[in-house]
Amino acid sequence: MDAVLLQILNGLDKGSAYALIALGLTLIFGTLGVVNFAHGALFMIGAFCAVVVQKTLTLSKVVLSETEKTPWGTPKEIHTYYVQEWFGDFGLVLQDYSVPVAILLALPVMLLAGIAMERGLIKHFYKRPHADQILVTFGLAIVLQEIVKALFGANPIPQPAPQALQGALDVGTMIGFDPGVIVYPYWRFIYFVFAAAVVSAVFAFLQYTTFGMVVRAGMADRETVGLLGINIDKRFTAMFGFAAVVTGLAGVMYAPILSPDYHMGMDFLVLCFVVVVVGGMGSLPGAVAAGFLLGVLQSFAAMNEVKAILPGIDQIIIYLVAVVILLTRPRGLMGRKGVMED
Length: 342
Fold this sequence. Notes:
By secondary structure, the chain is mainly alpha-helical. It has helices spanning 2-32, 39-57, 82-87, 89-96, 98-120, 130-152, 171-174, 186-208, 210-220, 222-227, 232-254, 264-279, 284-301, 304-309, 313-328, and strands at residues 60-69, 75-81, 168-170, 183-185.
């Protein structure tokens, strides 16, 4: 039982990332009908927002000490952080919490990036075949990752979690197990809570706000909503930006779990498209449910006991599940009739 609970916990953080990215993908496909292969690049850009904030907060100036000397007799260099000089001890707190602070940068950056992507490129492919959409957005994703590679280099850039959250929570003692049997890193738990909060906020926004109700109506029958005098195109553009924000925030908070690098977007993109297909194209609940389900299944498949019987199963388990689901239920778990059907 302890091994089962531990693998469920281990699958929650990756499942949370899958769910958030797949949610953004489904929002775009459900509103605009666009298969966006550049969506993984938005996840990457969000993660690099954390990198930019961390690098900015650790900028320092060098002053030569008048009293201290190095072993070679030269004046010792003293590094003073600008943020500490400007804000005192609060500046050190900002440094420590650079990842959560990066959310403040990611919100406008991701919103503008999403709107620019939709207005500048994708709007020209609304009425084109899905193959054309895949090709152009995949090309855009490659361009974006090469830009990031040129700016930040090819190596991963570690992003530390706040010191107070770098330990682990002893979950086992809370449910009756011996100490140290089931421990779970604080930040992974925070990521799961964060993902649950973002997913809840998205569904509440679509369900209970006038804007969200109009968007849902437009997803069901775009022409009728347009005939009512509502500019549904502007609302769908806003939803593209909104989906970019959701995915970007997922990248920001995932940075301490997986060090950002230029190809992380592609790594998650393919898996998250599988998640969307398993959940059902156009189904928001299906995308979230499939994200968590496949994340947990991947965690179980990574157990040494399982890999000893089926070597490499952890690399293909998601695709095997997708094959089984699509053979038995071609529309996915919660897919709607008519989506991507002729």
